[in-house]
Amino acid sequence: MLVAIARFDLKIPGCRSLKEKRHVVKGLTAALRARFEVSVAEVDHQELWQRTAIGVAAVGSQEHHMRRVMQQVEAFVEAWHGVEAIGSELSIRGADDER
Fold first, then answer.
1. What is the count of structural domains for the chain?
2. Which CATH number do you get for residue 45?
3. From CA 6, how far away is CA 67, in angstroms rounded?
4. pLDDT digits over 10-65, tens only?
């Protein structure tokens, strides 16, 4: 069993309030869940209007498949209207990996 974890640091330049930001983040996270069947959550910068970080996780059995899915997730995030990707990290770990 493998677990792929990605973090995307995003800028949302058009937001003027937390309500606008929540609208953008909620739309993006719902679209990621629906399209890729992954777990998604906002993981940082909840109090800032124009910044966010989202975490995406997926479970699978083949590393090349997990990498391909996460590359597709990254491309989807980068193409999402209203957000700019300013950083990302990817980690793939096996069940036997040390913590």
1. 1
2. 3.30.70.1120
3. 10
4. 999 989 999 999 999 999 999 999 999 999 999 999 999 999 999 999 999 999 99
